[in-house]
Amino acid sequence: MSNSNYNKDKIPSTHSKAPWNAFVGWVNGDTPEDKFEKPELYQAPKQSHDAHNEESAVQQTPMPQAENEQEYNTDHTEQGHFLLKEKFTKFYKVYIVIAVIIGCFVVGILAYAVCCLPPYGYAENPVNNEVSEKYLEDGLEDTGATNAVAGMILDYRAFDTFGESTVLFVAVIAVTMLMKRSMNKKDEEGERLVAHETEIDKKDQNLILKYGAMILVPFIILFGVYVILNGHISPGGGFSGGAIIGGGLMLYAMAFGHEKISKIITYRSFTVITSCALLTYAGCKAYSFYTGANHLGGDIPKGIAGAILSGGFILPLNICVGITVAFTMYGFYSLFSKGDI
Amino acid sequence: MIILEFALITFLIVCAIAFTFSKRLLTSVIIFMAYSLIMSIIWLIMESPDLAITEAAVGAGVTSVLLFLALKKVNALKGKKDE
Amino acid sequence: MEVILAHYYDIAAVILFGIGFLTLLLHRNLIKKIIGLNIMDTSIFLFLASKGYIFERVAPIVQEGATNAEAYINPVPSGLVLTGIVVSVSVSAFLLALTQRLYKKYKTINLDEIIVLAKKEEE
Hints:
heterotrimer; A: mainly alpha; 14 helices; extended; disordered N terminus; C: mainly alpha; Helix Hairpins; 5 helices; 74% helix
């Protein structure tokens, strides 16, 4: 049922040409007069074909369609490119048809499978089994956290969350390898871009952005800290609070330039703080494994439920995760914009 | 309530289709921001406030800023149709 | 009609998955492919999170003295999705970094042109 619905939305060029073109034009910000002959989907191969036609000087009669991939490798350079291009245009028509057919097929199978699932939102569904009952009924006693989600991901499944933070750390390491300008090999263009950026930062008198950031950034970071510290008694936690703090740092760096923020966060402090947060997490978790508890150590006081200092290890773990996420987000921004932290 | 949910879902699907057919990369990133924001409202309706906060901060905030920076690096912010 | 009314979030998730999948297959622009991958991610999260919702129950903020599982929704899908969102942002950041490196080398982000230029470089 949804498959036909999908088709109607997706490929309406035969049935409802005028409203579809109006929609596409509206999306692209065109006036209603200049209409497209075809959706942009089918134009993409043609454009690339034209772009390469100018490059190659050789004009030959089209070769018979190359079926296997080895064929254009054997020719010498320009003829090989011509064949490659030719193969692309012919291959594309088949490719688009096959892709649409496979997509509709996958969507149809998934929609059929989804319609056989138990209906949405009933308590008798097999998803709501004894696992969630255990988490909800014993969670407050076991973990001391009012927020059952935080109690679940930072106590019962804390090892999973540790892997999660490690994924973020590995991602920021990989982005550093890819984007950081090397000290030994001079990158002329990158240097020129960064110098240009710094000049713009100095000269620019963007008062609305600066005053807006000056008012907003403290509240954003304060809200992030609130979300992290209240992660175990209200919605939120390390991931969301860390992302909010990272957003605040990004706004600050955007408005006031990299000069000011690089006094606070350098490459060295970035690595040290992030690694220390992860190591603290690992240490807390190792302690709880060492004491042999399913949930974090028996001798850690749980505290009164609902107070800030409750929930055993959940508060420090939340802070560690929050620091890791915030610094990772800022690191992504900094590496993307100036190639350094 | 169910009418609101249907309206939000329709908005999501229209956003996704509009993203697919937009010619400028800048337009597609802005459409993706709107998509993430509507998704966070849906999660608020679904009684998962943790997810709503995280999606609003990560999807509409951080990912979009990273996409904008990448667009700036690949010189795709100018011009009318850049594909 | 009854089927749609009983499964509307699932069907929306499937449609969004299909749109993201077709974007991933048909577009030749790398950044569009990355956003399409993000849309696929979000549709899977929508599907997972909709499994945990139960009508007329509230978010799992357990109050003292009301530790009854009858009053709250299922917290397990929320926890799973929460970690998934953060992984999706790190994956897209990594993909964007790779895209910028490709642009630095080949001065284009169109996949066809990159393939042609890489072939030319090989020979």
